[in-house]
Design a protein that fits this description.
Layout (H helix, E strand, L loop, with lengths): L4 E5 L5 H14 L4 H8 L10 E8 L2 E12 L2 E9 L9 H14 L5 E5 L5 H6 L3 E7 L5 E8 L4
Helix pairs in contact: 1-2
């Protein structure tokens, strides 16, 4: 079955729903729920100057969201990409959001897009063409790969 996916800019009134989606998505991978809830309080799922937030809707519901920062020294940063567990591996939701973030970054003359990859998302990003460029310590004290994709103009 094919699902029509609509990607739109997030609105300020989406913030709490987007935070809940991030909690659902991170909890899906086995992280302790209370720790995830604490982490989510620090999330900024609203657009602001220098940062865009996009929402993917399918079947009349918000299924996922992504946030990307304006390029600094030619590199845009994908802050967030969260997919509701029931939409993981369905309708290409995550891939479509990622591609939308890439197009947004290209439109701001980014030469590359970088992101800190959760361990469970490394293969997803690799399939989209990202490669490991370095490692960094996360806010939870874990060493995570930073992945990047060089961008060409379309």
């Amino acid at each position: 079955m094919t699902h029509a996916v609509v990607i739109r800019p997030a609105r300020s009134d989406d913030a709490e729903m987007l935070r809940r989606i991030a909690i659902e998505a991170k909890s899906f991978w086995g992280y302790e729920l209370e720790l995830v809830r604490e982490w989510a309080q620090e999330l900024e799922p609203s657009p602001r100057p220098g940062r865009a937030v996009f929402v993917a809707e399918a079947e009349g519901e918000v299924a996922a969201w992504a946030a990307v920062n304006e390029p600094a020294d030619g590199v845009a940063w994908l802050d967030d990409l969260w997919v509701r567990p029931e939409w993981i591996r369905r309708a290409r939701i995550g891939s479509l959001l990622f591609e939308h973030a890439l197009d947004w970054a290209r439109g701001r003359d980014a030469r590359a897009l970088e992101l800190e990859a959760e361990p469970n998302a490394v293969d997803f990003y690799a399939k989209l063409g990202c490669v490991r460029v370095r490692e960094q310590v996360s806010e939870w004290g874990r060493t995570l790969p930073v992945m990047a994709l060089r961008l060409s103009r379309r």
